[in-house]
Amino acid sequence: MNKTLLLVVLSLSVLMTGCAGLRNVTSEVSSYGSWPTGRAPGQYVFERLPSQQANTELQTKVEAAAAPALSAAGFKLAATPDQADVLVQVSAQEQTLSSPYGPYGAYGHGPYGRLGMGGWFGTGGFSGVGLGLSFEPPLTQAQVDLLIRDRRSNQVLYETHAVHRRTGGLDARLLAPMFDAALKDFPTPAISPRQVTVPLPEKN
């Protein structure tokens, strides 16, 4: 029993050390769409899919993480939906990969083809970290997705995704810098996919 407890403690130490040593977040970003020339970002409201409406606590946290990136891009949160120029959908997901070269090791998705709410947040802040007795840290992958539509015409104006992979456990603080990376080049076209690195905020 004591040996098993020691292995569990050591495994937790590996995961915590990996998060503590992270200073920058590098994401693989893919952006699509053609923002109208001369159009200002304007005001926005978040739009939720039915699955997101079923988990309001989770979706509120994801939207809060995306809000600073939208503000940095020039958008302002509208006081009411009627005042909004655009509708914004955001999502986040996280998964533990069995191997960097396994069946889930290669990045790729179609436009909003892999949206999901994943096991990022739980009642304790985050969830989905599997604790085994192996000393080899797992490869984990997080993904955020953001879609901007014109409120009046319903036309998609911009779509962007950011994927971050690392060994060890994931920290919920990764969400905000990943959204920053996803909107880093807005509204100009950029090479997709591309790597974007942003600093990780200090933990309060």
Commentary on this structure:
A hairpin with a 5-residue loop joins strand 5 (139-150) and strand 6. It is built from four helices and seven strands, in the order H-E-E-H-H-E-E-E-E-H-E. Helix 3 (56-72) packs across helix 4 (175-182). The radius of gyration is 18 Å and the shape is globular. Strands 3-2-4-5-6-1-7 form a seven-stranded mixed sheet, with helices on one face. Mean pLDDT is 77; it is low at 1-19 and 100-133. The chain is of the alpha/beta class and 204 residues long.
Question: Briefly, what is this?
Answer:
By secondary structure, the chain is α/β, with parallel strands linked by helices. It has four helices and seven strands, in the order αββααββββαβ.
Q: What is the tally of beta strands?
A: 7
Separation of the first and last Cα atoms = 36 Å
**What low-confidence regions span 5 or more consecutive residues with pLDDT below 50?**
1-19, 100-133
- Contiguous helical run count: 4
Q: What would the average pLDDT be, to the nearest integer? A: 77
Q: What structural class do the secondary elements suggest?
A: alpha/beta
Shape: globular
- Kindly report the oligomeric state of this protein: single chain
**Rg value:** 18 Å
Neighbour order of strands in the largest sheet:
3-2-4-5-6-1-7
- What is the element string, with H for helices and E for strands? HEEHHEEEEHE
Strand content: 25-35%
What helical percentage do the residues reach? Answer: 10-25%
The largest β sheet comes out as:
7 strands, mixed
SSE topology:
Blueprint: H1 2-20, E1 24-32, E2 43-46, H2 50-53, H3 56-72, E3 76-77, E4 86-97, E5 139-150, E6 156-167, H4 175-182, E7 194-199
Parallel strand pairs: 2-3, 2-4
Antiparallel strand pairs: 1-6, 1-7, 4-5, 5-6
Helix pairs in contact: 3-4
